[in-house]
Amino acid sequence: MKSLESYQTAHAGLFKTETCYIYHYTACNGLRFETIASSLDECRKARDRWLRSLSVSFTGHRHLSEHTDFLVLKLKNEIIRAYRTGKRFFKTGGAVGFDTLAAEVVLQLREHLPELALMVIVPFEGQDIYFSPASKVRYRRILDQADEVVVLSATYFQHCYLRRNAYMVNHASRLIAYYDGVGTGGTSFTVRLAESKQIPVSNLFQ
């Protein structure tokens, strides 16, 4: 299901000279949001705040240093914990490694948790060009089964991954990470950005 928005205008005020917008939004999982504001831009900003309050993003390394089955168990527990606090939208960047594993766990849990939604934030169209054949199959299966796919750019450009990572932080109120605490790569950038914005980070790396 694609997210949908609609709105209508009405006149308010003593002399009916003020225009207001009555805004309706249906998210990819069927959740609805409604608001009234003096401009469409204000309505959409309110919608984005609502979505962010219900969203969790994932970030992690491409190479996993622990047994996958144990990490899957930790992911399930953390996702369920977030779900029980009201989180419904779970966002992954679709990279090889932790991103892929997290997406697959969300898809498994979606069968049992109402309104749970997977969103894939793609840095550029065709990011899987250098993936291995097996990783490409997993990636495309995730895209096919995701509730929503957001493509940030039609083509690759310098720093497109950092832009994707910043998007993940700016559109979430919680971060689930797999971060070894060292290095200066994308995972480190994302965790530090989240911490600078006082967004809670749950690190599953042990």
Name its key features.
single chain, alpha/beta, Rossmann fold, 2 domains, 3-stranded antiparallel sheet, elongated, YspA, DUF1273 family protein
Brief summary of the model shown:
By secondary structure, the protein is α/β, with parallel strands linked by helices.
Which helices and strands occur, and which strands form pairs?
Blueprint: E1 4-12, E2 18-26, E3 32-37, H1 40-53, E4 55-60, H2 68-84, E5 89-92, H3 98-110, E6 117-122, H4 133-145, E7 148-151, H5 160-170, E8 175-178, H6 186-196, E9 201-203
Helix pairs in contact: 2-3, 3-4, 5-6
Unreliable sequence segments: none
Strand content: 15-25%
CATH architecture of the largest domain: 3-Layer(aba) Sandwich
The whole-angstrom Rg is 19 Å
Which fold name corresponds to the CATH topology of the largest domain? Rossmann fold
| Broad shape | elongated
Largest sheet descriptor: 6 strands, parallel
| Fraction of residues in helix | 25-40%
- The strands making up the biggest β-sheet line up spatially as 7-6-5-4-8-9
How does the helix and strand content classify structurally? alpha/beta
Number of helices: 6
Helix and strand pattern: EEEHEHEHEHEHEHE
Number of strands: 9
CATH hierarchy, class of the largest domain = Alpha Beta
Q: How many separate domains?
A: 2
Query: CA-to-CA gap between the ends?
Result: 37 Å
Q: Could you describe the 3D structure shown?
A:
By secondary structure, this protein is α/β, with parallel strands linked by helices. The chain has 2 domains: 4-50; 54-203, Rossmann fold (3-Layer(aba) Sandwich). The chain is built from 6 helices and 9 strands; from the N terminus they run E-E-E-H-E-H-E-H-E-H-E-H-E-H-E. It has helices at 40-53, 68-84, 98-110, 133-145, 160-170, 186-196; strands at residues 4-12, 18-26, 32-37, 55-60, 89-92, 117-122, 148-151, 175-178, 201-203. It has a 6-stranded parallel β-sheet, with helices on both faces. The longest helix is centred in the middle third of the chain and has 17 residues, at 68-84. The radius of gyration is 19 Å and the shape is elongated. The model has no long low-confidence stretch (mean pLDDT 96).
